[in-house]
Amino acid sequence: MKAALALFIAVVTGLPTANAAPAQPPDAPRTETHITSEVLQSDIDWDALAIQWQRDAAKAWPRLWDGALSPLVVILTDQSNNARLITKEETHAISVRDLIEHPLPLPGDGLSYGHWDANPAVVIDPTVPRPDIDSLFDLVVHEAFHMHVQFNPNYRWPAVMKPRLEVSFKYPMQVDPRLYRRMLHSSLLDAYVDVGNRPEHLAAAAWWQNVWATNFPEELARTNSRDVLEGTAMYAGILGEAMSKIDNPDSLQERRAYFANSLKPLAGCRQTGDEHYDIGGVAGLLLDDMRVDWMKRAEAGETPVEIVLDGIASSSGEQAPEHIRGTIAACVEKLASEAAPLVNKSLANMRDPLSPILELPYGLGGAGNHFKVVTDTYRADGIAYSFFGIRDGVFATRAGTVAATQTALFSGADGFLFSLGPADFDVVGRQLTLHGASLSGSLIVDTVHDSDGRVRYRAAGTHQAR
Questions:
Q1: Helix (H) or strand (E) holding 121
Q2: Could you tell me the pTM of the whole model?
Q3: pLDDT in tens, 439-449
């Protein structure tokens, strides 16, 4: 891999800002500082964490991707006013004055983006619980890869410039596409770790990819860009973590030995959005191990799976073990049962042209706005919009505020959409009052009619007249 440009990592901590910690020499023994969901802020050794990350990033970042990499900036924060700056050479304190001159967005959910000097930065809070994250360094490299490699202002990937379909999946959920993707990942993982039988595993992977693409072509079209962008970022994150731990980060054998113990088959049916990460990640590792020159092809928009299976003849047929099918079927049923109370009533209203729609603008910002997504993004027959279930949400506009509970949120061309049942609202003049089981609040609206005659209430003052 080619050398990167200078590497900077700013770490915002709760340490005093008076004295800089000395740089750790290259041959110093490694002290592990793992941040997991169980670690509390008071338990973090910030000095050890800063020193470890300086060494890990300097070791891994220049090796992750062929071609130019912009300077990497990551801000690790406990949202105090103290900071530490890490470069490849040293780590030292950042003054409060410097922080004032470099205003940073505080990551309310633990992750956001900002700038340090002229460089974009990942801002991350390690004290936020992340039960699904094993390695914070993996996560940081993953997010930094998006910013500094895929969306590098000096060389933005052609893949990110192409029009992309929204990633959404058929509702009700189906077992077969999740099973085929699960088996694809398993076959790729087997091909990576079981070198002696790699041709057979690749042939099986080609069969699972083909049967999925043939039977679910719309899903293939909708997941292509995500398989590229999230798959390669997953590859970078897990590879960066591995490089920080093995003795020789350039050794394909050491990498494979590390991942043979750390990579696992997909559990259950996962949320469909997670598949892109795992499949692309293992496909990238496999391409490296096969010594395929693949990175420019991925930058142009080919998925890692397409590249690794290019020229591979499919097997004559594969069978998924019954216990895997049963596990995925049970998982799909569970996810469907969780989604149904949130979306079924809204779907029934949306299918009824006599039921009005409430439209709220995209880009609602500020502390008063939030919503918790608890399902994947779906599409359903007869519905022109994709949708997802939300547990609760608050949407504040200049026209008024809407509180939502246990309902579906649809994605329209110009804003969020809610379907309204006849008992959910009253309109007096331009004043819409919501008093349904899932929607409450009051706001001023403009009334328009869709092409099918459906009434649409738009939050007043948030859209240009049509």
A1: strand 119-124
A2: 0.82
A3: 999 999 999 99
